[in-house]
Predict the 3D structure of the following.
Amino acid sequence: MEWHQAVDLIRPHVVRIYTPQGSGTGFLVSRSDDGSVYGIATAAHVVSQAHYWEQPIRLQPAIGGEVVLLRSGDRAIVIDESRDTAVILLNNPALGLPAQPSPLMDEGYFLKVGNPIGWLGFPAIQGANLCFFTGTVSAYGEASHAYFVDGVAINGVSGGPAFTA
């Protein structure tokens, strides 16, 4: 698969997350069997303060769908600070996300050093569009569950959905 094909496949699963403190990237990782509950993965640092202070979170799909405002009672958030990961659970079909999330790597599986990867995300600059990034796995930190890509540490969600082509 070419990179542009992978981007087209993943883009519908991506959302931009806005909080009163900033913004970040999220992506669809699960959906209940009846389709009513979505799980959106993101980095814990993107949502932790809004979660703690019960502040609103706004989700904007990368393509299609509507911008959705979630107050604290409209969502549940599960945070793992040690891995800088979080999942936002919500029931809102207006986002227009796909019926099924894209497949994830199995627990315990990791990409080998030298493997090229790509990921999508909204960089933390004013007015940034959804951007595609590539790099090469430099190392995998098993204790931290983080990849070093071209010498920079990222975990599975902080840079947005990662994939190989």
Summary: The chain is about 10% helix and 40% strand.
